[in-house]
Amino acid sequence: MSTVLKCQVDKKGRATWDGPEFVKYADENDINPDLSNKENLEIVGNITNGEYNLAIHNVSKNEEGLYKCYQINNQKNTANETFVTLTILVKPKNVTIDGTINGQICGQENVLLQLKCAVISGNPKETITWYNMSSNIETGGPESLIAAITPTRFDHRKQYTCRVNSTALQEPLEETVTLDIKYAPIMVFINTNPTRTNEGKNLTTACTYDSNPAASVVIQKENNVIRTLCDKSTCSHTFSNVSRNDSGLYKCIGRNTYGSGHANITVVVQYPPDIHISQNGKKKVLTCQPKGIPPIYTYRKWQHLSEYGKRIRWLPAGATVEMESQDENIDNYQMNGIYICSAENGILNAHGSVVQSGKYSVLLKDKPKFVYSTEHIQYGRFSFPINISVSVYCYPEFNSWNVSSEDYCCYNETNFGHVTDSNVTVRIFDAAIQMKVFKMSLTTLMIKEEHFTTYTFWIKNEIGYSSFKVKLISSDRPETPNITEIIPGMNSLQIKFVRNYNGGLEQQFLLSYRKLTDKKWRISGPINDTFEQYYVHMITDLDDETYYELRLYASNAIGTSNFTSAWIVRTLDAEIKLNVLLSVLGALLGCLVIAISAFYVFWCHKKDEMAVENYIYQSQGNFLSNQSDHQRDLRERSLLLHGNGNITTGLGNINSVPNALNTDFQHQRSAGIDSIVETQDIHDLNYVEVAFGPSNSNNTSFIHGINDRTIYSDIDTTAFFESSQETQDNSSRDSSEDDFMYVDGIVHYTKRS
């Protein structure tokens, strides 16, 4: 094996290497010839880079020691020294643990045990550590280490590890030993103490033991050994058809060479209680009377059930319970039903249940009681059969009944009055339960005006009688409301509608809507009826550019109206909203220009003469190639524009006009007539077209050129301006070169007589 001792020197100086005991090893590149190991020494490295390294080949223990690299720089008058210690690594080996046999070491519970670990030492000196599993319990060395412990039964079969660490080792050395700890038996009954069982059952008492070495075990009752069956760690005795005589104290005893141990258990043979319930009718108190051994009982909460077995309420646990609530004024029929008392003394019955229960049926007498769910106000429709009824609980059963009104005494004597058995859902102590009742009804009688009155239901049994009044009120479903207008927004729809007759009851409106692509309807509302002239409701959070289907209906206590006809509306998109804004701005600017022009014309008209100078800078040679498409587009946009005006402007190269007006068409509505006017390119003719409102038809105005030259047109002030594709086409066909003369791009117009 070789090693290199490194030294960094100044390349202009003189360097030497000294070995152990300050023996000269090298001077510059020359190795000391007097050294016994001179053949193993060599100066290596690039001296021009300042590397002056000593290489030692076939390193042995003799080369171990302190080395010095020394340099003198005469020019700088300096000296540098570098010291390097060479250590020869020797691995430790042969780790052993004293007293081990087949990887185990014996000890006794609560007796001191010494664990000694030894190793053949290496170089440098090693460290030794004892571990109990992963826990460090002792560290020392070199060569050996003793760990002293006092083991318990819980240390039996635990492993202890001796670990040797050294820088000469790539991995530590380890040796592991398993403890074999001897201890006396420990006995434990696995049954609960005391152990209770039902008479007539089988019972097995069993104890487990732990010992090293194994123990001999017996079970005794009052110093008498009973039949005992044992396996490796458990001994047991089985009682067949256990009786009261088997009650008593039992011992499980175990012995080995290191001592003995025992465990006790008490066996108690008992039986679960039988539950009996008695009633004190006057105080409405029930008493629970369990009977069993032991006579120590734990009571559970009482249960009050309906006759159909549904729970009505929980009552406090105890030997007695009051059926009547202290906080409420309740009727006897509400206390009727099945009462259950549950108690336990810790003994299982034959079905394995520890809780035993007894039932008792309560049926209290009282005069007839109308159940709370019966309505004092009921409804009917003119010319429809009457159908009003009440539900009454009656025990003992009724012996007479009647239904009467202000105008008629005895519906029980007609075919219109009936009493039938029925079941109703009523709330008793906040529980909804089914209950057997009698249903008193008045049916099949066709309702006339005089039948809208108050009816008295009367019923009697041996305890007393009761009556109940029902007022019959005319009512019907509400009529269908009407949607008058739907205004679309980008993400919303505004619905305007008017109410209709509410059927005589309070009504609400509900709006049903969905996308045309959806199947499921969504509901917006309810909207309360406030008797307004009209209603406005907004639906938000909708998708833009989407078709929605809407319908409206009303609802009251009787039912719902029919739906309105379905409306299909499309929400707006963001571009249309911007176009609307730009169109409005353009219209406002156009109106301003037109107003100024109209004022000027009107002023001239007052003077019975007016002059209009028409400077034409360039002919309109650029016609829109797709006028019909543009007109159709504008008509679609006109759905959003509702401004009225009677003057349409076409503006060319005017710097102050917003770019929004430089569209292909401007759309206005004039006296209810849509006008679509072609707008020129910014390089084309600038013009103003004026349509005057109605005026005196006898008053004719003229427009002359400059200095009373050619008359350009006669103006009929009673006419309305119209622009259509047809008139544009005609005007295009009627024009000819006879009317216009082209001179260097300038057009002169001459009116011919």
Account of the protein in words:
This protein has 7 domains: 3-86, Immunoglobulin-like; 93-182, Immunoglobulins (Immunoglobulin-like); 183-268, Sandwich (Immunoglobulin-like), CATH 2.60.40; 271-362, Immunoglobulin-like (Sandwich), CATH 2.60.40; 369-474, Immunoglobulin-like (Sandwich), CATH 2.60.40.10; 482-572, Immunoglobulin-like (Sandwich), CATH 2.60.40; 575-749, no CATH class. Helices cover 8% and strands 46% of the residues. It is flat and about 150 Å long. Residues 609-701, 710-715 and 717-753 have low confidence and may be disordered. Strands 10, 12, 13, 15, 16, 18, 21 and 22 form an 8-stranded mixed sheet that branches. Strands 17, 19, 20, 23, 24, 25 and 29 form a 7-stranded mixed sheet that branches. It is mainly beta and 753 residues long. The longest helix has 33 residues, at 574-606. β15 and β16 (173-189) form a beta hairpin. One of its GO terms (biological process) is cell-cell adhesion. Keywords: Disulfide bond, Glycoprotein, Immunoglobulin domain, Membrane, Transmembrane, Transmembrane helix. Pfam families: Ig_2. It is a single-pass type I membrane protein. Residues 477-574 form the Fibronectin type-III domain.
